[in-house]
Amino acid sequence: MMHQKMMNSHMTFIWGKNGKESLISYLIDLISVFLLSLLVECLSHTRFINAVTNDVVAGLMQTVMYGVRIGLAYLVMLLVMSCNVGILLAAVAGFSAGFLVVRGLGVRSRGLTICPNSNYMDHWGYRD
């Protein structure tokens, strides 16, 4: 009679081992998650299409940018689901810093416009 072994597999992110190298690696991981979530938040509020762009090209560009933003957001979600508090805090800090850069610092007061369409309302209900 053959015994079949059950394969127990699970996906985990390894955030380093003990030692000096792993601390540096972990800090690089935290900075990477912070920057990735900052990028996702900035992409959520930025428009790259001007008014003179062809409608078909504009639609394709919006679709591609939406796909990139959602893909990066899901990547941040997967990293947070690793149940590492440091990664969670880095992601929250990155999203908060992205919001601060785009909304909180008053970028428009310096003559820059992130979203040139004044009727644009983002998913949080803020109107530009």
From TrEMBL:
Cellular component, GO annotation: plasma membrane
Keywords: Copper, Copper transport, Ion transport, Membrane, Transmembrane, Transmembrane helix, Transport
Alphabetical list of InterPro entries matching this protein: Cop_transporter
Subcellular location as annotated: Membrane
GO MF terms held by the record: copper ion transmembrane transporter activity
Positions of transmembrane segments: 68-101
Topology term for the membrane: Multi-pass membrane protein
Stored Pfam families: Ctr
UniProt KW Transmembrane helix keyword: yes
Family named by the database record: Belongs to the copper transporter (Ctr) (TC 1.A.56) family. SLC31A subfamily.
Protein name: Copper transport protein
Organism listed in the record: Rhododendron simsii
